[in-house]
């Protein structure tokens, strides 16, 4: 039975995250889920207490309606303090399998990898985070897995499948042969054929990694291209009609080497699809 923690700031964007949690609970045939709202405790005590009471009243009112939609009532929790600390403690307390959040900025995930609350949550809790960017109209149909040379993408694939967020028959995989390296090769006179050979080798490596976890993809669903990671993944999302991007991360290093710094920001700040960020298990 899945256990989902939904972190909400009570905005419309967070409402999308709540609806995705409803869809997942229904899809799983039930589960345990919790709505969490965190209030900054820097204000005077009486103000914080009043805000807690108001938030609890609002969420309890929503919980009954959500129970009818999901088939089971969510627990309501309003905490005070640092958001990342409260989220991690709450997730650990309920033994959550998944944290679901909404896009709280105009450019979702733009600063996810630069010390934000979500990054701290991923690093300290080892909890998969599902970032919901828009209204929920259906279950996820086509997931795109970003694949690099590490084991993190492989682990992310396994976890996403366990969470019921993808099925191998609808999976697409994107892997990039870095253009910077390709440019350096061309400068020293290595031919384009060598680059194509590199792509063939990487395709074989990716196929072997997928086979290790029981996934075998046909040529159309395995996209290995010479280009930037964001370009290759963007192509895969467009070609497949993907509605979920799956990323594996290193707990201590943030995102895996497939997405470095500004690459992650450019990709995740512009995609329309939801994103599942999966760190390695603790």
TrEMBL record:
Family to which this protein belongs: Belongs to the universal stress protein A family.
Protein name: Universal stress protein
Pfam families: Usp
Record keywords, A-Z: ATP-binding, Nucleotide-binding
Residue ranges annotated for the UspA domain, each copy included: 3-132, 140-279
Annotated organism of origin: Ectopseudomonas khazarica
Lineage: Bacteria, Pseudomonadati, Pseudomonadota, Gammaproteobacteria, Pseudomonadales
InterPro entries: Rossmann-like_a/b/a_fold, Universal_stress_UspA, UspA
First and last residue of the signal peptide: none
């Amino acid at each position: 039975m899945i256990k989902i923690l939904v972190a909400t700031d009570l905005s419309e964007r967070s409402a999308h995250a709540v609806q995705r949690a409803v869809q997942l609970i229904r899809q799983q045939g039930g589960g345990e889920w919790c709505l969490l709202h965190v209030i900054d405790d820097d204000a005077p005590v009486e103000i914080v207490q009043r805000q807690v009471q108001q938030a609890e009243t609002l969420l309890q009112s929503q919980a009954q309606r959500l129970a009818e939609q999901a088939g089971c009532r969510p627990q309501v929790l309003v905490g005070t303090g640092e958001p990342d600390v409260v989220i991690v403690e709450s997730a650990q307390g309920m033994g959550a399998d998944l944290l679901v959040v909404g896009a709280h900025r105009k450019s979702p995930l733009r600063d996810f990898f630069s010390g934000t609350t979500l990054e701290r949550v991923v690093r300290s809790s080892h909890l998969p985070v599902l970032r919901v960017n828009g209204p929920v109209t259906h279950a996820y149909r086509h997931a795109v897995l970003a694949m690099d040379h590490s084991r993190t993408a492989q682990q992310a694939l396994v976890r996403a499948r366990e969470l019921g967020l993808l099925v191998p028959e609808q999976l697409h995989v994107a892997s990039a042969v870095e253009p910077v390296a390709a440019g350096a090769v061309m400068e020293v006179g290595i031919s384009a054929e060598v680059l194509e050979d590199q792509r063939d080798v990487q395709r074989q490596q990716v196929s072997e990694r997928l086979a290790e976890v029981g996934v075998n993809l046909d040529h159309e669903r395995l996209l290995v291209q010479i280009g930037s990671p964001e370009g290759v993944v963007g192509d895969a999302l467009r070609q497949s009609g993907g509605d979920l991007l799956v990323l594996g991360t290193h707990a201590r290093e943030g995102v895996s080497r497939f997405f470095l710094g500004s690459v992650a920001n450019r990709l995740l700040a512009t995609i329309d699809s939801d994103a599942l960020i999966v760190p390695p298990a603790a």
